[in-house]
Recover the amino acids of this structure.
């Protein structure tokens, strides 16, 4: 926690740092390594761990279930199913993760029992969850995280797949059909959330896109209009630009995926958001590189590519990015800069 801008009384405001990481896939190749060790050092280099350690709160999108039960379940017959062993929860806790969103298209890859196991394993190590639950009410229940006297209210939702949606009698995810508009359940839930900042984590849009698609941009405006002070998106597996308080896509954090040579889904960012009692103030980003089942701080050449792409992606959305001493920053509240 650090001192920030002056308050109305002239005293410096206290700020906290929120670290946001993108799609975290701990299944398949990562799962095989987790069966041997749950030491975060085997999956994230010292630089990545140091970045997260500096944050007061760490949140990511967990794109797999944590269980040793269940079988592959998918009414859409998709080709990929992700499941990590239960010890993955301990690895995330030791890494410093405070909360995860489970609202995505892989939370039910191994059925309802595996999803319920995921909730239990994360709760056992003190990691909060949003975006999925044992029933409709739990899936849509926000979590309130506190640090330095500040309260961050967090909600997780996904726009796909509809078959994963929780019901009053069935476990599942918080599903919101964003294709033709933002449903009342979502906007009403946001309006009811309390906190110094309201973060909405949304799994939206198609995979492997270089920029947010039309319905994602339209939905973002509605979420901010309903009271979201910060929106963090994911699903594309590629980081996107920022427009105001909307971080359109956080990209990937760890996986064993095939690399697209043009979109470079193996190069990403950790998003560090500064918050004070009035909400988000500014964003800074840390370039990362995703090797097979291990993530590290990007080297100089990789960082240059990432910074160039991020600055251009933000410019396309009308956002100015400052480059100071090797760090890229964006003002989320320009008048407070």
């Amino acid at each position: 926690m650090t001192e920030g801008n002056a308050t109305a009384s002239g005293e410096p405001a206290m700020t906290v740092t929120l670290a946001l990481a993108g799609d975290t896939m701990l299944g398949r190749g990562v799962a095989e390594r987790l069966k041997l060790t749950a030491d975060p050092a085997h999956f994230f280099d010292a630089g990545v761990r140091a970045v997260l350690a500096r944050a007061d709160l760490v949140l990511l999108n967990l794109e797999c279930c944590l269980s040793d039960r269940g079988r592959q379940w998918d009414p859409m017959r998709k080709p990929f199913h992700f499941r990590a062993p239960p010890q993955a929860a301990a690895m995330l806790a030791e890494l410093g993760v405070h909360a995860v969103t489970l609202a995505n298209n892989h939370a039910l890859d191994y059925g309802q029992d595996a999803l319920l196991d995921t909730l239990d394993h994360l709760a056992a190590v003190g990691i909060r969850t949003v975006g999925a639950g044992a029933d409709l009410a739990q899936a849509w229940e926000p979590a309130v995280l506190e640090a330095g006297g500040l309260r961050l209210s967090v909600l997780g939702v996904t726009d796909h797949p509809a078959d994963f949606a929780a019901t009053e009698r069935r476990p599942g995810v918080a599903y919101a059909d964003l294709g033709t508009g933002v449903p009342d359940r979502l906007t009403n839930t946001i309006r009811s959330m309390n906190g110094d900042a309201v973060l909405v984590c949304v799994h939206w849009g198609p995979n492997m896109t270089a920029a947010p698609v039309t319905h994602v941009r339209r939905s973002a405006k509605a979420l901010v209009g309903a009271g979201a002070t910060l929106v963090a998106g994911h699903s594309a597996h590629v980081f996107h630009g920022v427009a105001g308080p909307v971080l359109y896509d956080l990209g990937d954090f760890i996986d064993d995926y095939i690399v697209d040579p043009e979109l470079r889904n193996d190069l990403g960012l950790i998003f560090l958001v500064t918050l004070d009692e009035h909400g988000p103030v500014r964003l800074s980003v840390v370039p990362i590189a995703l090797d097979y089942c291990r993530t590290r701080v990007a080297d100089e050449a990789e960082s240059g590519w990432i910074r160039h792409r991020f600055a251009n992606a933000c410019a396309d959305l009308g956002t100015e990015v400052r480059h100071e001493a090797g760090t890229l920053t964006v003002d989320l509240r320009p008048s407070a800069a």
Summary: Helices lie at 28-34, 46-54, 88-95, 111-124, 136-139, 184-192, 214-226, 300-316. The chain has a mean pLDDT of 94. DSSP finds eight helices and 21 strands in the chain. The radius of gyration is 18 Å.
